[in-house]
Amino acid sequence: MSYNAIRSRIDGGDVVILDGAIGTEILRRNLSWADHRLKDEPDAIRDLHADYILAGADVLTTNSFQLARRSFLGHFRDKAHMRHIGAPGLENRASELLAASVELAQEARASVATERPVAIAGAVTTLEWCFRPDLAPSEAQMRGEYREIMEVLADAGADLILLETVNSIREASVGLAAASEAGLPCWVSFVCDEDGLLFTGETMAQAEEALAPLEPDAVMVNCAPPDDTTAGLRELLESRSEPCGLYPHIGRFDPPEWLFTDEYPPPRYLEEAERWAEMGARIIGGCCGTTPEHIQAIARRLGDGAA
Ligand SMILES: [Zn+2]
């Protein structure tokens, strides 16, 4: 299985390359992001995944940011209201799109001839907004919802789960447990601030201690500027011997879209990535604002090479 090959490369001390941004890259390619474009622009999504494989990514992340039942239900007074005024099929739309997101990544993988094993990570983020831990639902609610998401991703054939941009230990623990129950290995990635702390103020050491019994396959930081994720990585490495990694964003958040800046062109991003690898990062990729060119730059130097 492709994940085992990735895992043994990490265990052997290699740097594994994660892909770059999906959502912002769809925007950069002049498409809007409604419905994640999974149904009406499948070729664009497939091409984007394929571009990341060709750039040298070992792990593809699915185009499934915040695809959860509550993302649709949240627009209505309640379920009855959604049935009354909503478009048909909204109740199952999240699950259908989640499954489609895995299928498109699989099709992209099948379309690119490469010797490298490529794994597909089902990308799952917080149930509510990823930068707002105060909005998180109760633990009991979370449990049911994460279970549903993880089962859909497992049934669709994801090789692992990337539980990303998580803002609290509590939500990370619930999501990680749900991934294990679904039988999938799980990488947990926290969003962090400039001091390398979670948005709840919790430390990476506390996170590591709380998550250890649930045995995450890797713990990472993402969706913060390079300097912030460097701080988070440093904190993580102090408390964790298992694989750590990171994938920062570059540019500025311009809700609901993204402002691309030229602060981190691929050569500068590579310089940062070399520093992270020296520090001990074993998984390196890119979050919002990064492109296949960024991934290619780091894969050529640090990874197994481009396809
Ligand atoms: Zn991001």
Q: In summary, what is this structure?
A:
By secondary structure, the protein is of the alpha/beta class. The chain has helices spanning 2-11, 23-28, 42-55, 69-73, 79-85, 90-111, 139-156, 169-181, 204-211, 226-239, 266-279, 292-302, and strands at 16-17, 59-61, 119-124, 160-166, 186-190, 218-222, 244-247, 252-254, 257-259, 283-284. The chain has one domain (2-302): Homocysteine-binding-like domain (TIM Barrel), CATH 3.20.20.
Task: Tell me about this structure.
The structure is a single chain. The protein is an alpha/beta fold. The chain has a single domain, classed as TIM Barrel. It has twelve helices and ten strands. An eight-stranded parallel sheet has the order 1-10-7-6-5-4-3-2. The chain has a two-stranded antiparallel sheet with strand order 8-9. It is globular and about 55 Å long.
Bound molecules: zinc ion
CATH architecture: Alpha-Beta Barrel
**CATH classification, class level:** Alpha Beta
Looking across the biggest beta sheet, what order are the strands in? 1-10-7-6-5-4-3-2
- Rg to the nearest angstrom? 18 Å
**Low-confidence runs of at least 5 consecutive residues:** none
Shape label: globular
- The CA-CA distance between the termini, in Å, is 19 Å
Beta-strand fraction estimate: 5-15%
Average the pLDDT over all residues and give the rounded result. Answer: 94
List SSEs in N-to-C order: HEHHEHHHEHEHEHEHEEEHEH
Quaternary structure annotation: single chain
